[in-house]
Design goal:
With about 160 residues, the protein is of the alpha/beta class. The chain has 2 domains: about 1-35, no CATH class; about 50-150, Transcription Regulator spoIIAA, CATH 3.30.750. Helix content is about 25%, strand content about 25%. The protein contains 4 helices and 6 strands; from the N terminus they run αββββαβαβα. The strands form 2 sheets. Strands 3-4-5-6 form a 4-stranded mixed sheet. A two-stranded antiparallel sheet has the order 1-2. A hairpin with a 6-residue loop joins strand 3 and strand 4. Helix 2 (about 80-90) packs parallel to helix 3 (about 110-125). The longest helix has 16 residues, at about 110-125. It is elongated, with a radius of gyration of 19 Å. The protein starts with a helix and ends in an 11-residue tail after the last helix.
């Protein structure tokens, strides 16, 4: 299920008899396909890449030190970056197996597609009986949009 959230296509086939009994044992074959979102960079330090360099207009800082992952989103989450936001949040909450706190206090622009991405994360968390806590202060760009769509949120993070 986690792999299915991170790739474009997943195919699982069970080979009970083996295609060529002499060459291979029977087993399960899993094929994952994921379309590249940007050109592959070979030979660079991944830790040096940032979301801004890849054309995405937001940053996401993760703090996994506590029992619940805390994701602070800053900048603009527009239509072109909403899918990437969903992917990063799903990775942070391990495909919905961990609850997560998403802080949108420093988001300067929040498109409706970003809210749809947050709903997708919330739905996946609910299937695992985990909670999504969205932080968006009153008067913030995200807070105003969350009020309109009726997505529950808090005005400040209460971290334990």
């Amino acid at each position: 299920m986690v792999a299915g959230q991170l790739v474009d296509q997943i195919q699982v086939s069970i080979d009970r008899a083996g295609d060529d009994a002499a060459a291979r044992e029977p087993g399960t074959v899993v094929t994952l396909r994921h379309r590249l979102g940007r050109p592959a960079t070979i030979g660079t330090d991944i830790s040096q890449r940032t979301e801004r360099r890849s054309g995405v207009s937001f940053d996401l800082e993760l703090d996994g030190a506590g029992a619940v992952p805390y994701a602070r989103v800053t900048g603009q989450v527009d239509g072109s970056s909403a899918e990437r936001l969903a992917q990063r949040l799903l990775a942070a909450c391990r495909g919905g197996t961990l609850p997560i706190i998403v802080d949108l206090a420093d988001v300067t622009y929040c498109a409706s597609s970003a809210i749809r991405a947050i709903y997708q994360v919330q739905d996946l968390l609910a299937t695992h009986q985990n909670a999504l806590t969205v932080v968006a202060p009153e008067g913030s760009a995200a807070g105003a949009l969350l009020e309109v769509v009726g997505l529950p949120h808090v005005e400040s993070a209460v971290l334990s």
